[in-house]
Structure formats: C-alpha cells, structure tokens
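--- STAGE predict ---
source: upstream dedup step, 1 unique chain passed
mode: sequence only
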Amino acid sequence: MKVEIEESKLQTAYANACDGVKDFMESLFGKKVFEAAKPTLDDYKTIRTYEDACKALGEPIFEDPNNLPNHIIALMKLETISRALWGRNFQPKPDGEGSKVYWYPWFALWTKKEVEDMNPEQRGALLSAHATYGAAAGFGCLGAHIRSSNAGAHIGFRLCQETEEKAKYFGQQFIELWAEYLKFNFTVGNRLK
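--- STAGE serialize ---
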C-alpha cells in the first residue's frame, strides 16, 4: 500500500504536534522536510499559531495570573501575532500625512445566502452601515462627537498589516482568536491550512 501526503499538510501537522510526535515525524520523513514548517519572522505563513508567533519572536507564552477576561487575553495574543507577521525588518509607524496604507482584517457577519435573502430595505441598511459613525472598522471603535472638537479611533493600528494579503491571512488563520476578541455570537469558518 502506498500513502501520499501533501507536503503542506505534513508541515501543518508537524507545526501543531507536541515534541515527541515531532521527533517521530522527523525520524520518519527526515528533518529537512520540516525546516519550512518552523516559525520564522522571514515568512509570515510559518506563523500558524500564537505559540509559533512567540517562538519566532523569542518571547515567552503568556500565562494569565490575574484571570483577565478572555477577550483581553485574545487581544494580547493577536498583538503578539501581528508583530510576528510584520516580520523581521518591518517597523510600522503611524503616518501623519496619510501617505501609507495599512490593512486590517475584514469580517463578514452574514453569509452570501443570508445577504441574498434580505429584502431591499434590509440590504440597503446593511450596505449603508459602513458610512455611519462607529462602523469604520467593522467592529467597535471609539468616538467623541458634539463637543468643541471631534476625535475618533476607528481601528487598532497594532493589528494592521502592511499588505492586504497578510491582513487576510491574519484574519482567516487566527479566526478563533478574533472571534474571542470581538465577542460576537457568530459561527467561525475554516482557517487556512
């Protein structure tokens, strides 16, 4: 009997395995097969878990001694993952002139079928929601209005990425953490393999 395994699936299994299983897999397939699976700041796709991000950054895994709320722990983990996804040489800095573009994961709260089944009034309300105050990031944001001045914080800069591709990966690969952070009652789809 012959069994064929895609290299990418083998590497994903290796990345999620405990040390004993990793040793077994290395003896079975050779260490070279798994070199690409090791988390590194040079290839964001090797960051598949929070633990991978910590390993790539050389940081300890967060232990919560104070019983913080789950959404706060999820945010802290997302910030660590975001830094790892930025890579070794990228230094994000806010740009006061607005000449740089950063990308933030975008999430849909409705399936395509749910949107198609909406009546025109419901769909119109959904499509116009992005223009209202507080919807610029798709989820919670802060704003001060009807005062002597206006101020707003529409997205978490620490969770932005420098490319659309990375932001999409960040949102899809870590969807469970995003769901915990955002605390909405929606179902979570599949992450990238």
